Structure formats: structure tokens, C-alpha cells
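Pilot study result, target chain (318 residues):
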Amino acid sequence: MERKSRTATRSGNYLIVITGPTGVGKTELCTLLAEEYGSQIISADSRQMYKEMKTGTAAPSGEQLARVKHWFTGNLSIHDYYNASMFELEVTGLLEKLFKKHRIVFMTGGSGLYIDAVCRGIDDLPAVDMELREELAAKYRENGIEWLRSQLKKLDPEHYRVVDLKNPNRMLKAIEISIMTGRPYSSFLTGKTKPRAFKTIKIGLTRDREELYEIINTRVDDMMKQGLLKEAKDLYPHRDLNALKTVGYRELFDYIEGKTNLERALELIKRNTRRYARRQLTWLGRYNDIFWFHPGDIKGIRDLIINKTGADPGKPYK
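Predicted structure:
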């Protein structure tokens, strides 16, 4: 059921964002809608971009890719450097081209930072002192991730509450900026929206917690049947890369190293995925411009899009 309402605007181009926690059903729903509108999809998942990580990131299936053109899936190697600012520039450039053919374009994913980069823009941050960066990186290597967490909590408790506490690079960045400027990193995240040549409609998908957790647990089992362990073994030599510090791979790397058994590794993948889903919902909960639906309410979602855009499925852009 729709939880929020806004006055409809029926002119111009629209980016329809389908977001929500991992496992909620974003990919299939977005594929269905884009198929109905004869449109295309931009993935806003910071891990599905890596071509070597298809199984563990639940990347779109071959069948889904055949139905609708997806951008930013499997377009990078784990050895490539990439960030949200680069994503912002590439996607806004791509949208300029896509809107010449489509009045409505879809974007889906659970990476809140990447969605914000496109919809709102990345805040301009001061350049980092490289000596400070190296000093902090050395302290992290010496003291571990708990040291990072404690430093961030002390310097910027607001950002500590929403950041991925298993991602050392994001924590290091926040600590660097906080120390260098004497201001919390979160104070630079002004939330001021950059002007865009399109309108955005955000649709959030949600399920009851127990329903979502059951889907997550089942999906992990399905990933194992689809070859997740083999994928992890193939990627194990590159385990120190940032792209692979990801739920599903970290736990299996510990199994490969003999630190745990396979049963325990799978339990941890499920637990850590559930925790990740909760963090995603915390991030998304900061915004009041998301229309929330159960993914099964396809009619409600269709009606919202028609009401807000005035565009019926299947009608070409004019």
C-alpha cells in the first residue's frame, strides 16, 4: 500500500528508481516494468558491476538481461577502481542519451550512495592530505577494523550510525575528512540537490521482516547451488581487493582458509546479509520522498507511475 503521496507532474522525462533492501525483489519487478514501458534499466548496485562476481551479488539473470537492456552490470573488473562520483558522471551522461528515446528510464539497486549520486549529486569534498591518508591506513593495518569504528564513532557519531561498518574504505574517508578539517564528515553531506534535466520518482519495496529474512536465507542456499563456492574459490587469490570485501565472499574465504566449517560460513552469510538489509533500510528511512509498496502490489506501483508521469505502458516517447 502506498504510504506517501505527492502532487503529480505530467511533463518532461522521468527516472523511476526502484529501491529497497537486498532480497526484496527489485530486479524482477524493475525488469517487468521496464519491459512494459519498452525502456531500459540502470543498475545502482555497487557490486553487480563486477563481472567476476555474478553469483554472489545476485546479478540479473541471462533471461532478465535478454528481456531488457541493463546498464552497469558486469561492466567492470574487480581490479578496476570505481566510485560514486564516477557513477554520477557516467549515468547522467547516459541518461541524456536515453531520454532522447524514452520518456521514462528505470534505475534499480540497493546502494543508497549510488542512487543519491544520480538523483541528488555528490557533495563537493575537500582534497585529502595524502600523508594523513597513509598514516591512517597504516594504523588501520596495525590495529584492525575495530580501531576504525571507534575513531569514526568518536569523530562523527552521525555518520557512524549509517555507514557500512564492514567497509574500511568508507570509514577511512570519513575519518580523513573529519581530522583534516576539524568538522564531522557528515557536515559536508549537505543534501543539496544538484539541478537535473529530469524528474525522479522513488519507489521503495518492503516486506515484513520475517518474510524478507526467509527470502534472504533461501537465496543464500540457492546461490550455493548455483556455484557460489566455486566462484569464491576462483576469486580467493584476489581476496584483498576492496570489491571482494563483500558479504558472501568474506565468509567463504574464511572457510577456504580453514578458519571455519562450511555450515558455519553459510550461517554467517545469512546473518550478515540480514544485517546489511537492515542498514539499507536505515539509509532509505532518512528520506521522505519514497513511495513504499510491497513488491506484490504491482497494480499499485503501475498506477503510481501512470498518475505521476501521465505515461501509459507501451506508448513510445514523443
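One observation from the pilot: Residues 253 and 259 are 9 Å apart (CA to CA). A full batch analysis is planned for the follow-on phase.
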